[in-house]
Amino acid sequence: MPIIVDKEKxxxxxxxxxxxxxxxxxxxxxxxxxxxxxxxxAKGTLYExxxxxxxxxxxxxxxxxxxxxxxxxxxxxxxxxALERTDAIRTSAVDFYSSHRNHAPLILEFWAHALRSDDKRxxxxxxxxxxxxxxxxxxxxxxMVHSGFFHPVDSxxxxxxxxxxxxxxxxxxxxNGGIFSLEKAYEFRQSLxxxxxxxxxxxxxxxxxxxxxxxxxxxxxxxx
Length: 224
Description:
Layout: H1 7-25, H2 32-39, H3 43-49, H4 53-78, H5 82-99, H6 104-116, H7 121-146, H8 155-175, H9 182-197, H10 200-216
Helix pairs in contact: 1-2, 1-4, 4-5, 4-7, 5-7, 5-9, 6-7, 7-8, 8-9, 9-10
């Protein structure tokens, strides 16, 4: 292990090592001693930073999701209109899932653990992210309706459904070995949803572009 004096940097290092070990062996099969060995530290050192294995597991997801939420908010606030804000949320999701592709099993295990654990912090963390995404999505949808781009739609129902579709795309991507472009899949979803909600005026402006994306799909090899 490199010599790390700064406690916060050392904590990040331990989290990074633990994420790799958990991904390979699974949360329940992994022992704290195995993480300490992989990090080249004493097991007691690991417990100085994390009281339990569950605390360490939560710290991994907490670090990832905090960075994800910061990215979403920054891109959302820097966007100039509803279309750009939609793109900001989509690209943030693609970037997050792509950057953690090797840790996909750990993300899925965290979701499952959140439903089983008596420690409510896990589910609360997931719900916090969902609240952020659905709130931003609801704002965008209402803005699109108000501007005349979308037909009237129950924004809360729509954004909750779209959030589930997004998670489903990630799950399909993982289970299929990443054989398709995650970015194109999210664009396809956006086009498919958009074409159904667009008003006639918006359809005449954006319809050709969205129809092209729909006809192309997202399963084609980029090099073919």
